[in-house]
Design goal:
InterPro entries: Nitroreductase, Nitroreductase-like, Nitroreductase/BluB. GO terms for molecular function: oxidoreductase activity. This is Nitroreductase family protein. Pfam families: Nitroreductase (PF00881). By secondary structure, this protein is α+β, with helices and mostly antiparallel strands. The protein has a single domain, classed as NADH Oxidase, CATH 3.40.109. The protein is 38% helix and 16% strand. The chain is built from 8 helices and 6 strands; from the N terminus they run H-H-E-H-H-H-E-E-E-H-E-H-E-H. Helix 2 crosses helix 6. The model has no long low-confidence stretch (mean pLDDT 93).
Length: 230
């Protein structure tokens, strides 16, 4: 039996520190970068090197997680036949959703986005990345509980989306419901739950975005601060 992991403190291996003015510049530069991120459904068939996808997923793998259990797995797919199988299965679920399974309120909320059951981007985008959440894990053949799984996987996925954007790529989050078919297609075990599909690639020349997608809440609606007196 392997030894039980123990706490060991290491000196901080990496340290970043900047003057206040430079911090503000860096924060502003990053804000400008992420403001150019858009979810798209119109993809070019321009190939994307596997190594780029690998580096972006490696960046996602550095995300913080509950008890450092890193409860995620990413399946990256460029095989056209496998992508098409995913598209067919996803569209079958989406047709049920848009035929009323989603409920009137949810469908009304999606109208300004302009989506429907047809998902051609799942074929055209050069890569699909399926995000799985590991609901539990194994150590020495024993099942172990994972903690803060949705939060941890959400953080890692956000970092992945940002890494892809930083590399000059676009993506779209796609969440057909239910998604159990992805376990079978991707040959993933029962302890993993598919969370979403990311279609990844370069935008087509005629790519568009919904006008409503450019309407972001202003800072005063998403931030509350409490500052003590100096």
């Amino acid at each position: 039996m392997a030894e039980k992991p123990i706490y060991e403190a290491l000196p901080l291996p990496d340290r970043r520190s900047f003057p206040d003015s430079e911090m503000l510049d860096k924060a502003q530069d990053f804000l400008a970068l992420v403001r150019t991120r858009h979810s798209i459904r119109d993809y070019s068939d321009r190939p994307v090197p596997r190594e780029v996808i690998e580096k972006c997923v490696a960046a996602a793998g550095t995300a913080p997680s509950g008890a450092n259990q890193q409860p995620w797995h990413f399946v990256a797919i460029s095989d056209p036949a496998m992508k098409h199988k995913i598209r067919l299965a996803a569209e079958a679920e989406e047709e049920k959703f848009y035929d009323g399974g989603g409920g009137d309120e949810w469908l009304a909320a999606l109208e300004p986005i302009g989506t429907d059951a047809s998902k051609p981007h799942l074929d055209i985008a050069p890569w699909l990345i399926v995000v799985f959440a590991q609901r539990w894990g194994y150590r020495d053949g024993r099942r172990i509980k994972h903690y803060y799984v949705p939060e941890s996987v959400g953080i890692a996925t956000g970092m992945l989306i940002t890494a892809l954007h930083n590399a000059g790529l676009s993506c779209l989050t796609h969440t057909p419901n239910p998604m159990k078919f992805l376990n079978d297609l991707c040959d993933r075990p029962e302890n993993e739950k598919p969370i979403m599909i990311l279609a990844v690639g370069h935008p087509a020349e005629n790519a568009t975005v919904p006008a409503v997608a450019k309407k972001k809440k202003p800072l005063d609606q998403i931030l509350t601060t409490y500052e003590g007196k100096s």
